[in-house]
Amino acid sequence: MSAKPFSSVWTRERKGPRDQGLSRDQIVRAAMELLDADGLDALSMRKLGAHLGAGATSLYWHVANKDELLELVMDEVYAKVVIPEDADWYNAATAFAYGMRGAVSQHPWSVTLIGVLPSLGPNALTAAERLMGAFSSAGFDGVDVDYAVAAVVSYTLGATVPEVSYLNAVAQAGTDVVGMQALMGPIIEEIGAGYPSLMARYDASAITMTDPLTARRFAFDFGLAALLDGLAARIPGNRTKDRRITREAEVHGDT
Which residues bind DNA (predicted)? Predict the structure, then answer.
């Protein structure tokens, strides 16, 4: 089977409005309005045209298909990930992590597009370049730059995507996080009866943190701080921990 040819909206020349028609920015804004209101499954070129009061010709003048439209709206999500141009590695990584978490949380439909559509738009590439540049300036070298960036991106999305997916499921169930917690509590107690250590931790967490969303924010803060502390230990000139890990690997025959 031959591979499907890859195409991207970013490889095509941007066109202006056709015959006093809609601009690309108008189309993207309207698409995001529909997505934020009704989710990804509700978006179609027909519905978008009706929302804008325009025919299909005005839409297809700017995008060849729905996938190209989604590339554009996803880059608008990345527009919320603002990394200052002169930020050091720690502040750049922090800005990316909180910016990406906030953007995905604000636009929960984007969860199912991350990793599916290529991030080739100017906002996504600007964020990537600034994050990579900050790590390079800190002293990370060669492939270590890629690994450091990947660690920050992977942690951010790994912690955020399941949370947003859960919130999507809660919304679809017609309740909120507190209501879902109340519904799940008795089930967890019943099923977890044979796991006393887990249940003791669950009960303690329920007592000390009554707001589930706040607990998730604290958990994100803790994980990000731990990750950045680990990256700081790997900056050239501060590699004692790295050398110890290497020696331990040699002792155990892992290298």
Answer: 44-63
